[in-house]
Amino acid sequence: MVDCLHKEARLVLQSEETVNRELEFETDFAGQLAGYGLTTANILYRLPDYPALIQSFVWQFYDHAPDYPRLAVFLDFWKREIDGPIHKVEIAHKQLLSPAEVRSIRFEGWLH
Fold first, then answer.
1. Is 36 exposed, middle or buried (0-12, 13-18, 19+ CB in 10 A)?
2. Which of 39, 48, 54, 88 has its CA 20 to 30 A from that of 97?
3. Per DSSP, what are the bridge partners of residue 78?
């Protein structure tokens, strides 16, 4: 069981590196300007040896809502390469770069 988990962890890291290269921006700021925001995916999956048990895998990355192309690539990889069938995926997304709040002022003065 432990060897199986180590193999899965290595495959996940290799997949992460591949996806990073495909969606890489020169800077995080450029990615945010392109509409990418911080995404957290909580993947609930069944253990292959104990299907009655559900395990959680949390992954945080930059992705583009509402399509989530990076998450889609990762989930396709999971279905192909990892034995644990996915039970449920919960997604939280935060657009880090948003329009600034602007307020008009009613008074401008000097204090002496």
1. buried
2. 88
3. none
**Residue 51, helix vs strand vs coil:** coil
pTM: 0.62
Pick from 99, 95, 77, 98: nearest CA to 86: 77
Which ranges of the chain would DSSP assign to H, the alpha helix? 2-22, 28-33, 69-81
- Residues with Cβ < 8 Å from 95, sequence gap 6 or more? 35, 37, 65
From first to last of its 112 residues, what are the pLDDT tens digits of the chain?
445 444 554 555 555 555 555 556 656 677 777 778 889 999 999 999 999 999 999 999 889 888 999 999 999 999 999 999 999 999 999 876 665 554 666 776 776 6
